[in-house]
Design goal:
15% strand, alpha+beta, two-stranded parallel sheet, 31% helix, 71 residues, extended
């Protein structure tokens, strides 16, 4: 990672209900903004990986349709 000048950011939280409600309230009020760059059906997960491999996707990549074949 150092040689390629890459940065990794991650957040792991336990879902205790209260924390999730507070985060939802922050999203609803606009105090917390989720940047979504791409929304793709689950069937196009390989495309999502290609976007990630290129780097700088510009926001989160969201896969939809889990369990429904992306439809």
């Amino acid at each position: 990672m150092v040689d390629r000048n890459l940065t990794l950011h991650g957040v792991l939280i336990a879902d205790d209900g209260d924390r999730t409600r507070r985060m939802a309230a922050l999203l609803a009020s606009g105090d917390l903004v989720a940047r979504v760059a791409h929304v793709l059906p689950f069937g196009r997960a390989s495309e999502a990986h290609r976007l990630l491999d290129r780097g700088h996707a510009g926001g989160k990549i969201v896969l939809t349709g889990w369990g429904s074949g992306g439809k």
